C-alpha cells in the first residue's frame, strides 16, 4: 500500500470516528493537516495573518461540514478545496478593497465564475512547488489582461472582478445576453492565446 493510500485510509478512520461522536478524531485531523493547509494558503495569500485566519476558518468549516462528508473524494482533497476556496475569496476581497490604491484595474480574474483561480489552482495541491508555480501564473494572468483588447478586458473585469451576472453586463454595455456570452468566450480565448501554453 502506497503512503498516499495509507494516508487516505487513516483519514477515513478518523472521519468515521468523528461521525461516531469522537471529537478527539477531529483534533488529530487538525494536527495532521494544519501545517500543510497553512503552508498552501500562505503561499497563495503571501500574508501570514490572513493565512492563519483562512486556515482556522477552513477547519471550522470542515468541522461543520464533516457530518455530511460522503467520502467521494479523499478527506485531504476535500479539505484543500475548502481552504483553496476561502483563500481565493480572501484574495479577491483584498484585491477589490485595495485596487484603487495599489493594484491596476487590468488585474486578473475574480472568485465565483466559470474561469477563475479554480482553473489555475489544482484541486489536490501536494507540494509548495505547485503553489509557487500557481502564484507566478496568477501574476501572468494580470499581465495577459493588459495585453488583450479594451473590449475584452472590460467584459472580463465586469464578469470576473465585479462578479456581475450576464443580465447586469448586458444592461451595462447595452448588448444582448447572447452577445455577452459570446464576447466573454472570445475574451477568454484571447487571454488564453496571450498566455500561450499555460492554459493547455
TrEMBL record:
Keywords: Sigma factor, Transcription, Transcription regulation. It comes from the Bacteria. Pfam families: Sigma70_r2, Sigma70_r4_2. The keyword Transcription regulation applies. SUPFAM superfamilies: Sigma2 domain of RNA polymerase sigma factors, Sigma3 and sigma4 domains of RNA polymerase sigma factors. The keyword 4Fe-4S does not apply. Coiled coil: none annotated. GO terms for biological process: DNA-templated transcription initiation. InterPro entries: RNA_pol_sigma-70-like, RNA_pol_sigma-70_dom, RNA_pol_sigma70_r2, RNA_pol_sigma70_r4_t2, RNA_pol_sigma_r2, RNA_pol_sigma_r3/r4-like, WH-like_DNA-bd_sf. One of its GO terms (molecular function) is DNA binding. Residues 29-91 form the RNA polymerase sigma-70 region domain. Residues 146-191 form the RNA polymerase sigma factor 70 region 4 type domain. PANTHER family: RNA POLYMERASE ECF-TYPE SIGMA FACTO, RNA POLYMERASE SIGMA FACTOR. Belongs to the sigma-70 factor family. ECF subfamily. This is Sigma-70 family RNA polymerase sigma factor.
Amino acid at each position: 500500500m502506497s503512503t498516499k493510500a495509507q494516508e487516505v485510509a487513516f483519514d477515513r478512520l478518523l472521519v468515521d470516528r468523528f461521525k461516531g461522536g469522537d471529537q478527539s478524531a477531529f483534533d488529530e485531523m487538525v494536527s495532521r493537516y494544519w501545517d500543510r493547509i497553512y503552508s498552501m494558503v500562505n503561499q497563495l495569500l503571501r500574508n501570514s495573518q490572513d493565512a492563519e485566519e483562512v486556515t482556522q476558518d477552513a477547519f471550522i468549516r470542515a468541522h461543520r461540514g464533516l457530518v455530511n462528508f460522503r467520502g467521494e473524494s479523499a478527506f485531504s482533497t476535500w479539505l484543500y478545496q475548502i481552504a483553496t476556496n476561502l483563500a481565493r475569496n480572501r484574495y479577491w476581497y483584498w484585491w477589490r478593497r485595495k485596487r484603487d490604491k495599489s493594484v491596476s484595474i487590468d488585474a486578473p480574474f475574480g472568485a465565483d465564475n466559470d474561469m477563475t483561480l479554480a482553473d489555475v489552482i489544482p484541486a489536490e495541491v501536494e507540494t509548495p512547488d505547485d503553489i509557487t508555480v500557481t502564484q507566478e501564473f496568477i501574476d501572468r494572468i494580470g499581465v495577459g489582461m493588459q495585453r488583450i483588447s479594451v473590449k475584452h478586458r472590460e467584459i472580463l473585469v465586469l464578469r470576473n472582478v465585479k462578479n456581475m451576472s450576464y443580465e447586469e453586463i448586458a444592461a451595462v454595455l447595452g448588448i444582448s445576453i447572447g452577445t455577452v456570452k459570446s464576447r466573454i468566450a472570445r475574451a477568454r480565448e484571447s487571454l488564453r492565446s496571450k498566455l500561450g501554453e499555460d492554459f493547455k
